[in-house]
Amino acid sequence: MTDIVFVNPPYEQISKGHDYVKHVTNRSPSVGLLFLAAQVRKGGYKPQIIESDVDNITPEEVVKRILKMKPRFVGITLFTVGVFNAAIISRMLQKQAPEITILVGGPHMSSMGMETMKKFNEFDIGVIYEGELIINDLLSAIDKSEDLSTIAGLMYRQNGEIKVTPPPQSIENLDDLPIPAWDLLPNFPHGYLPAIFDYPRSPVATYAASRGCPFKCLFCDTSTFGSKVRYNSPQKVYEIMKHLSDEYGIKHLQFIDDLFVANDAIVRELCELLIKDKIDMTWSCTARVDTVKFETLKLMKEAGCWEISFGLESGDNKMLRKMKKAITVEQSIRAVNWTHEAGIRVKGLLMLGYPGETNESVKITTDFIKNIPLTTMNLSKFTPYPGSPIYKKLYNVAIKEEDWERLNGMNFVYEPEGLNFAELNREYKETIKAFYKRKHILKHYKKMVLSNPTHLLRLLRFFLGFLKSKVLKILNK
Asked: Are residues 53 and 8 in contact, defined by beta-carbon separation less than 8 angstroms?
């Protein structure tokens, strides 16, 4: 019997005939749903999880699975690009099983909760901010037909109105949270992989060891976890890594925290634990260029750190100031050089098309990334995410049409003055080519393919799918 089904709805916007792209894109599960499932199980409820994109299923297929489980509740996590598919799922459930209560939460609800509840009558109850301390009280109150107004962090419908309860307290001690419910994922860990080349060996898992970010970048939404950074203790993180190694044979762990290297002392203590009681596992994490220290980087390498992702954003100091990133290009160069010298792979996270972007700033960024020892680069198309300060500044002013389905970092939805969409897309392609066409970068990826069978297999599936799509396109002409 299942009490509640947690759903990560389909959200990847891949055009028809291009499904082969999924062979090389991210296939990691939602860590948030794994925490929630573990929490409700702790409260005596029986959960299940549906990862739509990992399973490559449509909203209709999601509904079929839910109906077979016959739950009393369905909880859907909302990222902005997945809201409309979540609404489709909810609408079908309302028609076919109106007795099911539909709950929605996640980053989009924390930033755009009222707008979402008004726009989609299909959602019964919205959970805002962190849901773990809310969920069991909420399920119990619904079961007993109790008043929801006493539960913090909710938006719900009552007599045609949307009621909002006060914000909940944040979870101060992350060690109190149960171990994520990886056991509920079918074919875990082998069916769940990050994007190709984002790991040195498999199986792979993802985990967040901290929550919150104190910085005020204008493009970032911190609605869910807030500005105060809270941490798992190093001992708890070590225990999680040991659990993943012993129970599932995990060989690489991706820390997906907003800012893993926020507290130097905590990172060093974890590294010392890993060096003392070694686990056969490598790991990767995120950091700001102004929070890393060279001695700590060397310790991280010794403890198994394989890659650090830095939010470099741009190679132009003028653009960094416009973003309120609170770093300089000089700090970026120093941190990347330190990390490379420590023997850790460096991934640069950059964006193109932020307000104020020009042909000149793009050229400065292109030269910047070619002259620092990055191994890989993730270049996103500037996206004004709901909840971010720049979203509030641009929408209904520079951007008239609000299109949540395209807010995924893969579409340009805003034209900076002096650059149109065609020029932005051309600059985007040229910047990627300028970075990846270099011989030493190609040599690195060739080595990864030859040394890791999963990369080779994923690439083969991608290319076979690509060839099939081309043949079908010719035959259908």
From this structure: yes
CA dist 464 and 470 (Å) reads 10
Q: Tell me how far apart the alpha carbons of residues 29 and 82 are, in angstroms, rounded to a whole number.
A: 15
CA dihedral 120, 125, 126, 127 (to 10 degrees): -170
Q: Specify the pLDDT at position 401.
A: 62
Phi, psi of 277 (to 5 degrees): -115, 80
Pairing type for strands 154-158 and 161-164 reads antiparallel
Q: In the prediction, which pLDDT does 13 show?
A: 56
Output the pLDDT for position 404: 74
- pLDDT at position 400 is 55
Q: What angle do CA 152, 36, 88 make, to 5 degrees?
A: 90
Instruction: Measure the N-to-C terminal CA separation of the chain; round to a whole number of Å.
Output: 50
Cβ contacts of residue 154 below 8 Å, gap of 6+? 125, 126, 127, 128, 134, 138, 148, 163, 164, 165
pLDDT at 399: 59
Can you tell me the distance from the alpha carbon of 105 to that of 128, in angstroms, rounded to the nearest whole number? 6
Q: Which amino acid appears at position 324 of this protein?
A: K
Query: 312 CB contacts (<8 Å, ≥6 apart)?
Result: 289, 332, 336, 348, 349, 350, 369
8 A C-beta contact, residue 314 and residue 275: no
Spans in the chain with pLDDT lower than 50: none
Burial class (CB in 10 A: 0-12, 13-18, 19+), 1: exposed
Whether the bond into 189 is cis, omega within 30 of 0: yes
CA distance 237 to 257: 12
What is 86-136 written as a DSSP string? HHHHHHHHHHH-TTSEEEEESHHHHHHHHHHHHH-TT--EEE-S--HHHHH
Length of the chain equals: 477
Nearest to 103 by CA among 136, 81, 80: 136
Peptide bond into 203 cis (omega under 30): yes
Nearest CA to 353 out of 365, 344, 362 is that of 362
CA distance 154 to 168: 9
**Dist. CA 390–CA 290, nearest whole Å:** 23
Residue corresponding to tokens 């209560």: 101
Burial pattern 171-195, b for ≥16 Cβ within 10 A else e, equals beebeebebbbbebbeebbeebbbe
